[in-house]
Structures are given as structure tokens and as C-alpha cells.
Amino acid sequence: AVAMIKDFIPNLQDKKCLVVGSSTGIMSFVLAEHFDQVTGIDIDMDAMKVAKEKYSAHNIEYLEMDALKMKFPNEHFDVVICHHTYEHVYDSSILVQEIKRVMKNDGVCYFGAPNRLMIMESHYNLPFLSWLPRFVANWTVRIFRKEAFYYER
For the whole model, what pTM was predicted? Predict the structure, then answer.
């Protein structure tokens, strides 16, 4: 991700980076070597606890925060990393609007997404799950994974 971002912003040392869906903080920790400030947000409190314990640095801040209701001012970050997060939110269009709002006008967003057409769906490890109509996918995860419904989108 850093190499691609440097194609657009060569000097990252004085830049602020937001990691949306930072989970246990591994990516935030790696990015902290390149940015002046890294902020990782997630709603998973257990993951954030791991991030704070194992992947902290002087220039990383971890915040429990909903990516659909970010509490940052407009145009606050130079770079936003959203890697394999959008499929976990109930409305990805709100997520994209929030990313656009908190990112500076000349900022860069690195957006990584799983391929919906992968044969083996990566969250439930069931073949063709993401290809199925929603009601069939819900039924499939109830039977094979004892989950209430197929949450990812």
C-alpha cells in the first residue's frame, strides 16, 4: 500500500493517515514507520485492545469509532486506508461518503476490497456463497455455519 500511495504523495513523513477498520493494529503499526501520525479506528473493542497492547507506537492512536459516523473534522487526513472493511458495514455508500469527508481534497485513499466472484468466500469459507442471492446465502450460512444471516456484502 505504501509504495502505491507514494506514487501520489512522495513524502509521507509529515502526513496524517487514517486506517479504517484497523482491527488488531498490524497495518497501522507498519504504516507508522512512514507517516507522521497514524490513527486507527474500529468498532471491535477486543481487537482494539490487542492493537493498543501489541502494536503501539508514539505516533499511533487507536480509537473505538464507527466508520459510518466518524468524529473527525472535514478534510483532516492526507491518506485514508480502507482495506477489506467495506463488506462489513451495513451501508458502504455511507462509508465512502465519510472517507471522502475526512480526507483532504488532495488526499489519497487506498481502498482494498475482496473479489465477490472468488470461488471460496473468505469470511465463511463456503464455495460460491457471495454469488448466491441474499436469501439463499442467508439460508446457507444458517445451515453450514450456524450463523443468523450472511452479513458481508
Answer: 0.85
Q: Is 114:141 a contact under the CB 8 Å cutoff?
A: no
| Measured distance CA(26)–CA(112) in Å, rounded | 16
Most confident of 6-15, 109-118, 128-137: 6-15
**What distance in Å separates the CA atoms of residue 12 and residue 79, rounded to the nearest whole number?**
9
For residue 70, which of 38, 109, 31, 97 has the smallest C-alpha distance? 97
Q: Do 40 and 60 touch, CB atoms closer than 8 A?
A: yes
How many CA atoms lie within 13 Å of 45's alpha carbon, on the beta-carbon side? 0
End-to-end CA distance of the chain: 23
